[in-house]
Amino acid sequence: PRLSGPCTLHHHLPVSPCIRNIWTLHKPRRCPTLVRGAHGANVSPISLQMYGKWFDIAIGTTCKWMKNYKEKFSMGTLVLGPGPSTDQISTTSTRLRQGDCTLVSGEYQKTSTPGKYTYYNPRWDVSIQSYVLRTNYDEYAVILMKKKSSFGPSTTLKLYGRSPELREDLMESFHQLALEMGIPEDSIFILANRGNLLWGMCLSCCQSTPAAPSGSWIKARDIPSKPNSLKIGCPGRRLHGQNMLFGQ
């Protein structure tokens, strides 16, 4: 079945006290200034260096729905940029879902805490708080997301990379950090990379979609749905509506 459920509109949360002063990722080549955020957590403010394209590499989550369907999740991209107003950032996510290249766009609200962003979806009554825990801007970023909804709270930790592959020590350190945050071993997983040729084709067709005017959503009717010339990997493009970014 198509990936949808209580945790697809997801992942961003207030930092739990259990992660105070926890940071085990390999020392970055360029270490940004950290700011003490809510509950004593260290967060990295998003700067212009954070903007651009990221690949989502790995996930650790307490969401049981995501755990049950983890085999169906695949690697995608996240593009960060300035929002329609100075207190927002724009997010655009592309990924393959059942052979379709899907694109989701939205905005997150900045807060008085550097590196913390919020999102609320009234349709699903979902609120999300997102924290950029650590990044060296040109290689990796780790984002903590806490969600509250009618299905209950959940915590998700995500590892992003500027390329589809990251150093093994970063992967191992992310895994250890997720465990120290109380995320179960069987709920920490690497997102499947469906192949470089497939990626090139899918991302090319999705990114050829004309940009929407500032502050507006890309509409389904604006996205063509037809096979690409090679007829594999990305038969069409679909918009999944206003969704949570930084996630699947």
UniProtKB/TrEMBL annotation:
It is found in: Secreted. GO terms for cellular component: extracellular region. The keyword Transmembrane helix does not apply. The keyword Glycoprotein does not apply. It comes from the Eukaryota. Its main location: secreted. InterPro entries: A1-microglobln, AMBP, Calycin, Lipocln_cytosolic_FA-bd_dom. Residues 52-194 form the Lipocalin/cytosolic fatty-acid binding domain. This is Lipocalin/cytosolic fatty-acid binding domain-containing protein. Keywords: Disulfide bond, Protease inhibitor, Secreted, Serine protease inhibitor, Signal. It comes from Junco hyemalis. GO terms for molecular function: serine-type endopeptidase inhibitor activity. Pfam families: Lipocalin. PANTHER family: PROTEIN AMBP.
